[in-house]
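QA checklist item 7 of 12: single-chain prediction sanity check.
[x] sequence parsed
[x] length recorded as 246
[x] structure emitted
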Amino acid sequence: MWKLIATLSWLDIKLRYRGSILGPFWVTMSTGVMVAALGLVYSTLFDQDMHDYLPYLSLSLVFWTAMSLVVTDACTTFTQAEGMIRSMRMPFSVHIWRVMTRNFLLLLHNLIIVVLVFAIYDTWPGWNALWAIPGLLVWLVDGVAACMLLGAICARFRDIPQIVGSIMQIAFYATPIVWKVDQIREGARFMPLNPVYVILEIVRGPLYGTPPSGVVWTSALVFSVALVIVAWLMFARVRGRLAFWV
């Protein structure tokens, strides 16, 4: 049902920015302003070379935005489709892929910022960027699992989205996004225990020209497998009740 999924995803974006002149490019513009502002401030605070720091920051913020949007939207995977779920028989996977497709389109908009920064500083990653493809596939699997898990839980408990939002805010400061791993020295060896860091790094690292280590990849796969198992067990248990919860 890919045509229906694509249509619903595009309709979601149009409705979200209805009446706006720039549409989803407002997100791109705000992210670009944030990259410029934080790059100027933190490069001074951390004594970083802008030629090296701004490409890192642009990658970090663009992919962090994509990750946080997927997690946030995952909480409303089924509640936002309440009318469709109650009125017609349709696979729940349609609503999951609707969320994933919508956020993929938004990610493509924001990647313009990364391309501009790379062009300005002439810091292209080269063939190392190909290592980001397996990382994006892991992101795809994790995103679907997150929609299954959070979508089901949040349909039953409506307070969970606020909790998830708070956790993501804490994760932003606890993860190397505006700062780098090597800045914490001895604490760097504990970073593979941070699931947000390893999931982010398997995509960001190759595009920055530094493919992630085997430890990072192993941690990312372990966390991903655990998420998939928990999501599958949860969804298989409650899928028959979702129509009553929404």
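[x] summary fact logged: The mean pLDDT is 87.
[ ] second reviewer sign-off
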